Amino acid sequence: MNFKETLQSVELILAARDVPLLVGETGIGKTALASYLAKKNDWSLLVIDGNLLKEGEIGGLPTITTYTRLNAAGKSVKETTTTYAIHHTLRAIDEEIANQRTVLLFIDEINRCEHAVQQELMNLILNKEINGYHLHPDVRIIAAMNPSDSYDYETVNMDLAQQNRFVWLYMEPDYAQWLDWAETAGIEPEVREFIATFPDYLNQHHEDDIHATPRSYERISKAYKIYKEKKQTISKSVFFNVIRGNVGKVIAEEFTHFIESDHLPLLTYNDIFEGSPDDTQLQLRIQKESHTRLYLTAKNIFMRLEKDTTTDTPLTAYQIKRIISLLAMYPVDLMIGMMKDMRCNTPHIYHQVLNEESFVNLYFKAYCQV
């Protein structure tokens, strides 16, 4: 499942008070999904990294305390009992609950910890209790793990009874949704254009080199932003080594060549709306573009229009006409996809163009061709 489908599935599972288990490669966006969900619902997000825990750390080490009781003869006698300290994250949960907050507990790398630690986490996840500590009913839990059948990870498999207590969700990367996210997350335009041009590079494994993941490009974006600001003091070879350390040699070479070459830039808002656009030339340009780059072009333009559009400042008749003209130049399957995307992600401009008969006719004409 892609990010959006996984998110909707998680919301349904949590509403049913069950525990979703996200399964996906490292860097694919499992933690980002938990962060997005917490922010969306105004929940407090707390994270436990299973692979960093040692036995007894989450369950608490035993300590001896003394108490007084009456024996059969009615005399006071001192006894000792074993109690357990609690993990700082569990204490943080209690503090958030005391402040009337709903907590989303994200337990990551559940299959990359020691077997004893895994058993402790299972008690917490499935029984909501560990060594006398009881998890508050208002705590939502999401667990996550790497694929257990991959040779890239050292994993500890769960038994069948444990597996049956989760709702398993297999998460896969989706370049189109990553581009949507990258726009809002402030990923550098050149990085987004690179993925739009080479979508397979978003999540690519190399047998003898570093794997490229969606998380890799977050780091590349930050490094590239600094590099652009300090080109006079940072050499190209140093920058290349940083990129190589994120995605491997092959993609690093492609990326550095991409940003240094005179590659054809994406169509922009100005190309479509400013001056006197030549639709014949635009049509020829669009025919030469890949679906991914066309998708990113439309997304960039629609997002800009959405930000500038309010109830008091609606689209002009000219802007509506140009939107419809742009869509009409797109391949039929992509045009339908962009119309659906407008409905979900840019509702203000969608409802305005929907009032145009030419837009509705364009949709049904395209739908009949699919």
From TrEMBL:
The protein's UniProt keywords, in alphabetical order, are:
ATP-binding, Nucleotide-binding
ATP-binding as a keyword of this entry, yes or no, is yes
The keyword ATP-binding belongs to this UniProt entry's keyword annotation: yes
**CDD domains in the record, alphabetically?**
AAA
User: Could you tell me which residue ranges the AAA+ ATPase domain spans?
Assistant: 16-172
A Pfam match is: AAA_5
- Matching SMART domains, A to Z? AAA
Entry GO MF terms? ATP binding; ATP hydrolysis activity
- Which SUPFAM superfamilies does the entry link to? P-loop containing nucleoside triphosphate hydrolases (SSF52540)
| Listed name of the protein | ATP-binding protein
